[in-house]
Design goal:
Elements (H helix, E strand, L loop, with lengths): L26 H12 L4 H19 L13 E4 L6 E4 L1 H13 L4 E2 L6 E3 L6 E5 L4 E2 L1 E3 L5 E8 L14 E8 L7 E6 L5 E6 L4 E7 L8 E9 L7 E6 L5 E6 L4 E7 L8 E9 L7 E6 L5 E6 L4 E7 L8 E9 L7 E6 L5 E6 L4 E7 L8 E9 L7 E6 L5 E6 L4 E6 L6 E2 L15 E8 L6 E9 L1
Parallel strand pairs: 3-5, 4-7, 5-8, 6-29
Antiparallel strand pairs: 1-2, 8-30, 9-28, 10-11, 11-12, 12-13, 14-15, 15-16, 16-17, 18-19, 19-20, 20-21, 22-23, 23-24, 24-25, 26-27, 27-28, 30-31
Helix pairs in contact: 2-3
C-alpha cells in the first residue's frame, strides 16, 4: 500500500486516510505498513496503542463517556462513497469496531497437517501439540496479518513421567575411562556428557553429535582430576551455563566448586577455592543437585536416606550456602540411595537406589522445596540393564532418562515421552528453537497474497 497521508482540517476529504485530526483509516493496512516499514522496534508502541484502544472501546460500549452537547462528542470521517464526511458518535464507532472484530475472533484448528484458511484475517490457535504438526496456509488474502500460538505440551513436567518410561535400546560404555563410575551429568543442550568415578577421581567429557542421544557419544579426550579435593567422589553437578562445576564425595562430606573458563569444557576447569561441608546433615553423601537458578542445593546420602535442602544467597556459589532446615525422607522407597535429580521446574524429584535398582518419582507442590514432597506412586526398574546403578540424569525437556552403574560401566538411555515439533511453511522461514512447555506466539504479515510471508513478531513465554 502507499504511505498514508494525514492532513489536518482539509477543505475536502479525497481519501479515507485523510480527515480531521481524529481520522479513521484501514487499521489493518496501516499497521501492516507501519510494521513492515519500521520493524520490530515499533512493537512496544503498537502494543501500548492497542491497549489504549481496547480501554476506550470498553468504556464506549459501557456508555460511560460523559455527556456532550452538539457535535463536541462526535468524530468526522470519510463517508462510504468517499466523496464527503460524516459524523459518528463514540458509541457508533465502538459498535463499528465491535462488528469488525467479530469476524476476527480466534479459531481453533487440530490435526497433524492442518490447512489454515486465513481469508478473513482470522487469528488461530493450535493449542497443545499432541503430535508432530506441519502447518500450511490457504486462501491468503492481500495485505493479510495473522497470528499463530501453540503450546508444545500442556505442562513441561508432564514429560518427566516415569509412568511412560521404556528402555530406548541405546547405551554407551565408559569402561575405557572409568571402571567404577559414580556420577553422570549433561550439558544443557545434551551435546556434552560427563562421567565421574572413584577409580581415577576424574571427570571425563564426551561429545554427542546428537544432543541427549548416547548412541552418538565419543570420548572428547578431555578430563579433570579432583583428587586434590576429594578421593572418593560420589556426585557431580554443573551450573546452567556450565561455567561452574561441583563435586561431592564421601572422604570429606564436602561440596567443592570449580570454575570453567569455557562453559561445559572440563579442560578449562580450575578449583575455585570454594567449598561447603554437609557433614552436619549427612556423613555418607551419595547425590547432589541444584535448582535451575542455583539458589537451592540438595544433598542425599545413605546414612539417613534423606534429601537435605540448602539455600545459596548467590546462585551457584557454595560459599554462600546455609542449611535451609528442610528435608524429606525417602526411606520408605529406598534405604541405599545413590542418585538424585529434579525436573526443570522442580515440581518432580527422582531418587535412584542400589537396593531395588529402581527410580522413584516424587511430587513437590512448591518447586524445589523438598518440605512439600510426597511420593507420586510412580517408579521404574532398571534391573534389566544395571544391577548396581549409581547415577541418574534427565534431558532438559524430560523426554529422556539416563542411568549409569558399576556392573557394566555403561550409560543406558530410556524414553519417557515424545517431544512434538511444529513445522511452518518454508515461505515463513525457520522460527527460533523452543523448549518443550514454552508458550509460543508468532505474528505474520503478507503483502502479496501469501507468496512472501514475513514473521514480524515471535514471543516465547517460559
Amino acid at each position: 500500500m502507499t504511505t498514508p497521508t494525514i492532513t489536518l482540517y482539509p477543505d475536502t476529504l479525497p481519501a479515507k486516510e485523510q480527515a480531521n485530526a481524529a481520522f479513521d483509516t484501514n487499521v489493518d493496512n496501516f499497521m501492516d505498513w507501519l510494521t513492515l516499514t519500521n520493524g520490530p522496534e515499533l512493537q512496544t508502541m503498537i502494543t501500548y496503542t492497542q491497549e489504549v484502544a481496547d480501554s476506550v472501546l470498553a468504556t464506549a460500549l459501557a456508555g460511560d463517556l460523559p455527556p456532550l452537547t452538539g457535535k463536541a462528542g462526535d468524530y468526522i470521517r470519510a463517508n462510504a462513497a468517499e466523496d464527503g464526511g460524516e459524523f459518528r458518535t463514540p458509541q457508533e464507532l465502538a459498535g463499528d469496531l465491535s462488528a469488525f472484530l467479530a469476524s476476527h475472533k480466534p479459531v481453533n484448528v487440530s490435526g497433524a497437517t492442518p490447512s489454515l484458511d486465513v481469508a478473513t484475517y482470522n487469528f488461530f490457535d493450535q493449542s497443545a501439540l499432541t503430535s508432530d504438526t506441519t502447518v500450511s496456509f490457504a486462501s491468503v488474502p492481500t495485505n493479510a496479518k495473522w497470528q499463530y500460538s501453540y503450546l508444545a505440551a500442556a505442562d513441561a513436567d508432564d514429560l518427566f513421567d516415569l509412568a511412560t518410561a521404556v528402555y530406548a535400546s541405546k547405551s554407551f560404555s565408559v569402561t575405557s575411562q572409568e571402571s567404577v563410575p559414580s556420577a553422570l551429568a549433561f550439558s544443557t543442550n545434551g551435546t556434552s556428557m560427563f562421567v565421574l568415578g572413584v577409580t581415577n577421581d576424574t571427570v571425563y567429557q564426551y561429545t554427542l553429535s546428537t544432543g541427549f542421544d548416547v548412541s552418538t557419544a565419543v570420548y572428547a579426550s578431555k578430563s579433570f582430576s579432583v583428587t586434590s579435593q576429594e578421593t572418593l567422589p560420589r556426585a557431580l553437578a554443573f551450573s546452567t551455563s556450565g561455567t561452574s562445576m561441583f563435586v561431592l564425595g564421601q572422604s570429606n562430606d564436602t561440596v567443592y566448586q570449580y570454575t570453567l573458563s569455557t562453559g561445559f569444557d572440563v579442560s578449562t576447569a580450575v578449583y575455585a577455592s570454594k567449598s561447603f561441608s554437609i557433614a552436619a546433615q549427612e556423613n555418607n553423601p551419595s547425590a547432589l543437585a541444584f535448582s535451575a537458578n542455583g539458589t537451592s542445593m540438595f544433598v542425599l546420602g545413605v546414612t539417613n536416606d534423606t534429601v537435605y535442602q540448602y539455600t545459596l544467597s548467590t546462585g551457584f556459589d557454595v560459599s554462600t550456602a546455609v542449611y535451609a532446615s528442610k528435608s524429606f525422607s525417602i526411606a520408605a522407597q529406598e534405604n541405599s540411595p545413590s542418585a538424585l535429580a529434579f525436573s526443570t521446574s522442580g515440581t518432580s524429584m527422582f531418587v535412584l537406589g542400589i537396593i531395588n535398582d529402581t527410580v522413584y518419582q516424587y511430587t513437590l507442590s512448591t518447586g524445589f522445596d523438598v518440605s512439600t514432597a510426597v511420593y507420586a506412586s510412580k517408579s521404574f526398574s532398571v534391573t534389566s540393564q544395571e544391577t548396581v546403578p549409581q547415577a541418574l540424569a534427565f534431558s532438559t525437556n524430560g523426554t529422556s532418562m539416563f542411568v549409569l552403574g558399576e556392573t557394566n560401566d555403561t550409560v543406558y538411555q530410556y524414553k519417557l515421552a515424545d517431544a512434538y515439533s511444529l513445522t511452518l511453511p518454508t515461505i515463513v522461514g525457520t522460527p527460533s528453537a523452543t523448549v518443550i512447555g514454552d508458550r509460543v506466539t508468532y505474528t505474520f504479515v503478507t503483502k502479496d497474497s501469501g507468496t512472501t510471508v514475513n514473521l514480524i513478531a515471535e514471543d516465547i513465554i517460559q
